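Note to self: the last two entries modelled the partners one at a time, which told us nothing about the interface. This time every component goes in together.
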Amino acid sequence: MEYLIGIQGQDFVLVAADNVAAHSIVKMKQDQDKMFKLSDKILLLCVGEAGDTVQFAEYIQKNIQLYKMRNGYELSPTAAANFTRKNLADYLRSRTPYHVNLLLAGFDETDGPGLYYMDHLSALAKAPFAAHGHGLNHRFILNLPSFSVRLIDKDGTHDLEKLIPVGAK
Amino acid sequence: MALQDLCGFKDSFLNSRWNLPASHPVEYLSESPIQFVIAAADTRSSCNGLVACPASQKILPVHSHLVGTTSGTSADCALWKRILSRELRLYQLRHGRRLSTAGAAKLLAHMLHPFKGTELCVAATLCGWDGGEQENISKMGNETDDLAKTSESDSISQAEARGRNPCPSPAMSRQHCSAGGKQLVRSGPSLYYVCSDGTRLQGALFSVGSGSPYAYSVLDGGVRWGLTVEEAISLAREAVYRATHRDAYSGNCVDVYHITSHGWTRRDREELREEYYREKERERGKVKERREKQEGVEDGQSSGRKK
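The predicted structure of the combined assembly is written out below.
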């Protein structure tokens, strides 16, 4: 099961994601980073079906960067979240929907911190705390060995120490 | 077999085709100062429960410094490997340098993505050496152990202090260097796993195919930092041998490829049946020794009692 957790505070957003990349019952990789940096103060956390996650997240990432190059300023977290949701919705009723669950965390100069929960059915909700668990393919790997944790505040994104639950080696 | 189910080969198909549920290519990326990548695979191609070819080639060279192992449907793997070679060659001609393994993996993943949801089944690992067009790296190929034991930042400062070109020696893998002061070139060994469902993973150790759980058990037990080339090769061979022993869809021979900054080299194909008989002989010898020792002890005891 892949886990994403996000918590919005007064002036920060804290996000954590597990590090396992698995194929049915085999843990192929134990240090996979599931967070994608959309800009200095926006992170996209992505879990779901095997290839879709990275493809979709990188597609969004490159488009956000393209917007910055074309227009000279970055998209706000709200705009980025809505852009992501629109893309998910457009692909939903096509032949190739993306089976991904997302959390978008960002810090805006005017609006402050924001955490957005997005679903594979392209639901979008701004929430003070949110989580995704229980992977879509029902991968049953318990005892996730480690979590990467990041913090976003007005100074940007900070990597915190990796969490290693006691007893889960 | 879990991975077999992933490719959906458990059911037999009406039109028989060359299924390859069974290869368990094994790749290992070293972290010792002498850098290399080892790729090993068995040679059995099965089709609906019978061995279609006992001598197939599952490790296909893509270019001089990149080798790909194949698992899944052999036709799909062979085709996509050729398409990948073509695209990499075009890139090399257009840009004057080889595309890195990461780039090749990304290219393959993006080419396979439109076929997601169809019955295309390719699970490949790309093992290659990036950069390496500079002579400095091959000269530093046999760097002494002291460099390897220090941290990466220390080794850079040591190299600079000795007045050498601060391009990465193999002791520092995954380092960015400025080659000629202009381009950022990440140089060294590289291993990527690419699957037709779109997965693309970078790692140090992968095992793919129906025999992979058995291979993983051997590898997880034996892999450690600082393996020499011979140790790594024998470990990879052992992993493939164990997998062929237990997995019905793997067997026959083992191919081992060794990739360094000079390119790939291939060991002769080995029949694993010989290995099996050699192991049986060794076991017989050990049992005999044990029995003799036992009898020797008993004789000693009985003679002691007599005295």
